[in-house]
Amino acid sequence: MTAPIPFIPDRFKTNAAHYLAGRPAYSPQLIRRVAQACGLSGSHRLLDLGCGPGQLSLAFSSWVGAGLALDPEAEMLRVAAGLGAGIAPNIEYREGSSYDLSPALGRFRLAVIGRAFHWMDRADTLARLDALIEPEGAVALFSTAIVTDAPIAWLAPYHALLEEYAQSDPARLQRKADDWESHDAVLAKSAFAALERVSIVETRRVSVESLSARPLSMSSLTRERLGGRLDELLARIAELLDAHATDGWLDERIESTALIARRAGARS
Ligand SMILES: C[S@@+](CC[C@H](N)C(=O)[O-])C[C@H]1O[C@@H](n2cnc3c(N)ncnc32)[C@H](O)[C@@H]1O
Q1: Residue 118 within any structural domain of the chain
Q2: Which of 129, 136, 147, 216 could form an S-S bond across to 18 if both were Cys, CB 3.0 to 4.6 Å?
């Protein structure tokens, strides 16, 4: 078992303001597939663990009776509460982390974790969730990835730039190391060992503005970490994207994936 990445509750403080603009959205089609696969009928409870700016809890809000969105970073919760205000009255936003999961939170049909499982002590989190998830319930890990099946001229140099400036981050080094266990392997050793992967691939228009906000949404590329090198990175990104964009827009192919993990024997 690989050691967990050290827990820093405010790791995403300065990223919060840029997160929704910078990160690819999850496909609405994927949300529907997961909701149906997990038998959500409008009455169950949902846990959004590491909710960040709350995209997942908002997307699931019409599929559940109530949701609890937990995150250790107050700025993320502020953005999340703003996103849900008036349209997701059944979602409660609360400060907390995987280390606060306890039966006092009640029972849930589904726990969703988007782009955040790697920040947790994964085995400990799954053991805690085992006490909270209903017998027929599930844990679903959400992620997005950029698909590189077709040549996109700006993509490789864009990623090379992000990698060049992010590579010294100790948390990133730990996660990219050869001995870092995959989420699948960690789940396979947990109570939630029955896995189903669902993914949707879409070509999307993306603005230069959004691709410029993407580095600012990443904890490995903060000003605190890079100082003046952040401005250098942003200038290099602007130069690269402007050379390829048409009226400030580019295309990218995004794969939105959910890894649904159930207990062996639970009905899908
Ligand atoms: C990359 S953001 C993901 C936000 C959102 N869930 C999404 O799908 O885009 C990771 C979030 O995990 C939170 N986080 C970090 N460590 C955590 C932990 N141990 N338990 C719960 N959340 C944690 C961070 O504060 C951050 O908001």
Answers
A1: yes
A2: 216
* Atom in ligand 1 nearest the alpha carbon of residue 48: 6
Residue 192 CB–ligand 1 contact under 6 Å: no
pLDDT surpassing 90 at residue 54:
yes
Q: Hunting for tokens 């990104």 — which residue is that?
A: 237
| CATH code of the domain covering residue 126 | 3.40.50.150
> Residue 22 is encoded by which pair of tokens?
């910078």
Residues in the chain: 268
Are 56 and 26 a contacting pair, CB within 8 Å?
Answer: yes
The predicted structure's pLDDT at residue 268: 66
Structural domain contains residue 4: no
* Total domains, the chain: 1
Ligand 1 in reach of 51 Cβ (< 6 A): yes
List pLDDT tens digits, range 211-259. Answer: 999 999 999 999 999 999 999 999 999 999 999 999 999 999 999 999 9
- Domain of residue 22: give its range: 16-262
CA angle 233, 227, 168 (to 5 degrees): 70
Show the CA angle centred on residue 268, arms to residues 192 and 136, nearest 5°.
60
Q: Does some domain include residue 268?
A: no
On whether residue 241 sits in a domain, the answer given is: yes
